[in-house]
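FORM 7B: Structural annotation worksheet

SECTION A. Query
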Amino acid sequence: IRCLASRIYEHPQTRNLRIKYLADGCFSEDEFDLVVLAAGITPSERAKSMARIFGVELNSHGFCRKVAASPTRTSAPGIFVCGAFGEPKDIPETVIEASAAAAEASELLSESRGSLTTQKTYPEEKPLVEGVPRIGVFVCRCGRNIGGIVDVPAVVRWARDLPHVVFADENLYTCSQDSLEKIKSDILEHALTRVVVASCTPTTHAPLFRDTVREAGLNPYLFEMASLREHVSWVHMKAPDKATEKAKQVVAMAVSKAARLSPILSNSFKINNEGLILGGGLAGMTSALSLADQGFNVHLVEKSDHLGGHLSELYDSLGQENPQILLRDLLERIQGNKRIKVYLEAEAREVSGYLGNFTTKVKLSNGGGEAEIKHGVIIVSTGAVEYEPVEYLYGRNPGVLTQKQLEKRLHTGGADGLKSVVMIQCVGSRDDEHPYCSRVCCSEAVKNALRIKEKNPEAEVTVLYRDIRTYGFREDDYLEARKKGVLFVRFDEDKKPEVTEDRGRLNVEVFDGSLRQKVRFTPDVVVLSTGITADNKTLSQILRLPLTEDGFFMEAHAKIRPLDFTAEGVYLAGLAHSPRMIDETIAQAKGAAVRAVTLLSKDLIQAKPEIPVVNAKWCSSCGNCVKVCPYDARRINPETRVAEVVEVLCQACGACTVACLSGVSEQKGFEKQQIIAQIDIAVAE
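SECTION B. Predicted structure
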């Protein structure tokens, strides 16, 4: 209910809460069991104190003041800000800004990279003695996460009687440093040849325990993990007795599997330390400079005949940055950087290879021919396009413009002749065809409305809107526009404005919900706040990358991996991902660059060792394994007609092993029957 809540009080008889509110010009009052306050965000006093210590300036709201054209730089050189102390924001923007801050720091420290790094050394790996396995079981209480539900001592006693178990014990927190040291000493003391840890999720903790096992001289893949937290205590907290029995069975399965483990050696692959960036707009240029400033060569591919993208058509902003000065600075830095090679009028036509070793064929339009680029990572920053209106007489009456066209007119000719302007929001956004919010439209309307008022204070500017979404500090600009006399009139989705013309004169009618009647305007121009649409289908097929239902590229995880694709070594930035403002684009571009550097800064990459292998003698080239592989790690060799595994891409999910019609694909280090049994167990649970 769109309203202004004016009063909340407790009803003396029902003890419920009653709210009095103003909606559509009338007061109403309703009774509720519960009232939830959606509270805003304010900077903490501790953060303000920290800012004073470091000499960092704050803005008028008490948040950290940022330097123009940078979403993470503070007023103090070498000190960066990310997260909510810079501005209220959601989780994805926080993660993106954190990566951007890391990129800024990495650029400053690039010459010193690796100077303080020490290579970890391990003792010589003990050869596995054939014979009866000697298994050690370590059961974790995980504080009360497991121990509060599962009878951990009973599980330990059960484990001691399992076949091949020579030692079993419990820990309060098995992942603590003391517990890890104890595991190493127990391996040596009891001559263990296999280790089972029963604790929380293997996703986060298996690498830690494998490393501990290796430090004790065992092959890290003589380790098995049982999940007692996610699979037992958290899902059966109302039935502790049954949870304890299930925990015993889960441990028994892990022990049974551990007895059959064998050592696995993993292969390493050399990395190509150059990057490829597709798209030369603001995001692409920013990523290219960030990679270059961090010490890596970059290939920047742009399909048009110039760099800049949408930035070249922007002349003003609500922030401190001037888009044209920003563009000029980026172009000068790119032209003067020997690490960046620019390809104009070029498009990627074919991409092959894998993480750390890609080969991209680029079609060159200006000189003809084709360029073959070898690189280790890809950053996709191909941008998006402005929605071209078909409504409101656009293209039929010269007085109907888009916000971008109005901005150019204000830049070149000022506001002369503009006595009355009507702006219509959500054109090409939040409708059946484009159901998403394009995010930038409201701020663009407020920006241009303010510029008209600055150049011609007497001009009448009216904004017809469904919702005004000037989020964050842009709300200040919205309030400033209202103070300067900009009129905001709301319309409902089912009662959109009507634009007509009479002898070349524009007329706009809209139903005002507050006045409960239609209002009419006769403006000099009608300005449409158009949305942003995506055109990524062709490139997504070339790169084999997923798209959202709206046509934008889909990240690996909306909240915790907003810069990555599920395909390893490929990263995402700018409008290709979603509509965003200048500062947000810069943050994402720098964040994508530093995500790429986490790979490019290495010389070698290690493939997963527990991968499928193919018995070439029995392979029938059915292609089932290629079809089901979710990581593009399977292919049929065109010469031998035998299935192959791209080890560096394989994630050892086992899908190809189960799908194999010939029964010749086996998981290295595991029996095929065991993998199928694990899948059956997971389905049963």
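SECTION C. Observations
The two ends are 43 Å apart (CA to CA). The chain has 17 helices and 31 strands.

SECTION D. Sign-off
Analyst initials: ____
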